[in-house]
Amino acid sequence: MRKVLSRRTLLRGAGGVAISLPFLEEMQPRVALAQASGESPMRLITMFFGLGMDRNEAVKQFQGPLEPYAPLAGKMAFFTNLEANQAHDFGSGEPHFKMGDVVFVGDPQKREYEASGPSLEQLVRRELHPDGVPTLIGSKSMGMWFRTGSVSQYTRHWNHDGSPGERPERRPTRIFEQLFGGVMTTDPGTGEPDPEAVIQNHMRRSVLDAVVGEYKHFTGDASPLGAASKAKLEVHLDNIRNVEQRLAPIEMAVEGGIAQECGIPDASTIVDPGTDIPYELEQGGSGGSAPIIPHEDFLAAFEIQGELMALALRCDILRFGSMLFVGSGGHVGLRGTYSALGDSVNFTADLPGTSPHDAYFHNNRWDKCRLHAHYCQKALASALLSMDDPSYLEANGKTVLDNTLVVVGTDYGGGGNSTGHIPSGLVHAVAGGHGHFRPGFNDSVYNIIDLYDTVLKPYGISSGMGQGRHATYRHTPKEITSLLA
Known about the structure:
two-stranded antiparallel sheet; alpha/beta
């Protein structure tokens, strides 16, 4: 009689190492039973890109900055004319930060740099799992950002009381450690990962060394796995090792292109200056303090984060999380020439001592902004494509992306003849979603609350946005029927 494996089967090793497995045929009976009764694990990931997109470019669909999503056209719904005036009509604070309190939350800020309620993924997480998510990690935030000062700049995880949750982790090596357990060595003097130890542990050694015994068991003659599952396990572990070998070189490449004080510290070590510091004095701000990074290295660091997020979802290590590529306001001194859409932008020449936020957006250089927006979409699309890997089909024959609700959003629209900081003409997208949504483009005017409420409806969840969560804001949601399958 064939042994049935639990979906929670792990390869366990010394030092807290735990390698989760993707779906294998031997897990089918339990999973098939759950799906037959209409149950399926609900996953929700939000993805954010800063500085927005000109609506005049967004309506060009795949002929404009949205072009990187073309391979996923059958799995994504795009909205190019959303509005969020509640971000400007209530509260106080610098425009980008006010908007940062509202994206994925809906209601205007409770007070400066404090949201009115939970972000989408945290709302669903508690609604479905009030006693805790039955995974190794409840949720995870990751992304590439640098400016600090206001948590609204980079945080997209907001708790139910409106307080900021986990800030996005930037170090790929740190994310890997959090997913699989400890092989990282820190410098006893600083508490930070020692660069040489990182290289030693992730290039010359491997987290997989700790689970060799378990691996031999599952691929040997006494294994409960069939030939197909053994082969899938080998591919899975090879993929983990492939990612692991690239962690340190990518991370060191990013650090090598940045001034010493603007490296990629462990996000948990950053101290927020507080809300009383003027906008222009915040850490990692505009002007000469914008960190200098080759755009290829910045993108590569995010792409491997996307691979790690896909790996975590595939192995059911987590089901909820957020990703961020360039925080609200941007402020990264990109370098090099970036080419797309039959055009090129020379970041090195355009951004001496500054960032796209100041050189492009505040100078209404929309020809440059369109390529910056394309660059951001290329990053986010890479994460979605990692989730859509057909090599790892789940029990229902679908990819991880098919079985995950992903909501992509940004902070500003406008463009064209506008002066920027426009809370209308916003671009959002919905990817995957368990087959609940129709792909395509929609340029009708809706509030972001309308979109958030509509995507939650198939899961039987009400957001409560615009219905009293903010003391003085009221909004009657309008269902986007064209989105529902």
